[in-house]
């Protein structure tokens, strides 16, 4: 009697799109290193920027297509370590820290180690059921894509012909170490993954005009526009801390009131 052949399992192609985007981001990170070896730093920076864009949307696409999976989450973290924990410090070393020899290399190894620790902590906390719902608005510490791009912000200063920090390699080292410490810190930073809220209908035209104006500025003065984005993100850090503190106090007050009610019962 012939054994019946098992029907091969099939998977909708749409389910592969998020992981394909993550792998494309990984390819961009690897390509940026090759471009750095060829001293094509502008294109290398754009590759990291493209990788950060893919990293920002692959999770949303996965949720939209209902294609979330544990493998996808781990793959995303591995790609993030490559694209924002390894590629930026390597580019920075070749671009402006190479002359500092061992001191500069040590700082970049610390940056990569902090990125790995930050991603490991994120993976450990992501499914913690004890976290209140409002904490989803925040990251604990600076996310690795932001730290990687901020570490490369001196590139934009030079590309925009504003200032060349390669003349001061120790400043580059201090800045790199600062972003590394921010990744492993407990400082709450805004998470773009849970942007919500509402806006008055009569304000919509003004918001659209502002977006159009900003887009025109980015395409006309790309490096200066990216610097503006970097400084805007840095400027948002105190506000994220204040909002986290306010929500934390409110959550603690609600918990105390519930304890009092339960005691009275």
The gist of it:
With 265 residues, this protein is mainly α.
**Strand tally:** 2
Structurally, the number of domains stands at 1
Give the fraction of residues assigned to helices.
over 70%
Strand order of the largest sheet: 1-2
What descriptors fit this protein?
71% helix; mainly alpha; 2 strands; Four Helix Bundle (Hemerythrin (Met), subunit A); 9 helices; 265 residues; two-stranded antiparallel ribbon
Would you mind describing this structure in some detail?
The chain is built from nine helices and two strands, in the order ααααβαααβαα. It is mainly α and 265 residues long. The protein has one domain (14-124, 134-243): CDP-alcohol phosphotransferase transmembrane (TM) domain (Four Helix Bundle (Hemerythrin (Met), subunit A)), CATH 1.20.120. A two-stranded antiparallel ribbon has the order 1-2. α3 runs antiparallel to α4 and α5 (144-151) runs antiparallel to α7. The chain starts with 16 loop residues before the first helix and ends with a helix.
What is the secondary structure topology, with strand pairs?
Blueprint: H1 17-37, H2 41-65, H3 70-97, H4 102-125, E1 138-140, H5 144-151, H6 153-159, H7 169-184, E2 188-190, H8 204-220, H9 222-264
Antiparallel strand pairs: 1-2
Helix pairs in contact: 1-2, 1-3, 2-3, 3-4, 3-5, 3-7, 4-7, 5-7, 6-9, 8-9
């Amino acid at each position: 009697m012939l054994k019946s052949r098992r029907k091969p399992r099939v998977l909708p192609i749409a389910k592969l799109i998020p992981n394909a985007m993550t792998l494309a981001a990984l390819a961009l990170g690897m390509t940026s290193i090759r471009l750095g070896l060829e001293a094509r730093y502008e294109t290398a920076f754009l590759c990291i920027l493209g990788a950060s864009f893919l990293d920002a949307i692959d999770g949303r696409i996965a949720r939209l297509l209902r294609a979330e999976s544990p493998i996808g989450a781990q793959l995303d973290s591995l790609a993030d370590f490559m694209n924002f924990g390894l590629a930026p410090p390597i580019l920075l070393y070749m671009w402006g820290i190479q002359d500092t020899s061992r001191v500069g290399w040590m700082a970049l190894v610390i940056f990569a180690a902090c990125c790995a620790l930050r991603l490991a902590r994120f993976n450990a906390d992501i499914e913690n059921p004890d976290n209140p719902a409002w904490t989803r608005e925040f990251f604990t510490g600076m996310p690795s894509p932001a730290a990687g791009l901020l570490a490369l912000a001196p590139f934009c200063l030079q590309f925009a012909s504003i200032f060349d920090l390669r003349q001061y390699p120790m400043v580059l080292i201090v800045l790199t170490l600062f972003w590394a410490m921010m990744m492993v810190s407990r400082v709450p930073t805004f998470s773009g993954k849970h942007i919500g809220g509402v806006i008055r209908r009569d304000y919509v035209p003004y918001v659209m005009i502002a977006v159009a104006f900003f887009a025109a500025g980015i395409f006309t003065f790309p490096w200066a526009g990216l610097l503006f984005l970097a400084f805007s993100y840095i400027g948002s850090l105190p506000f994220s801390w204040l909002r986290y503190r306010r929500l934390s106090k409110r959550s603690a007050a609600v918990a105390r009131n519930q304890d009092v009610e339960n005691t009275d019962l």
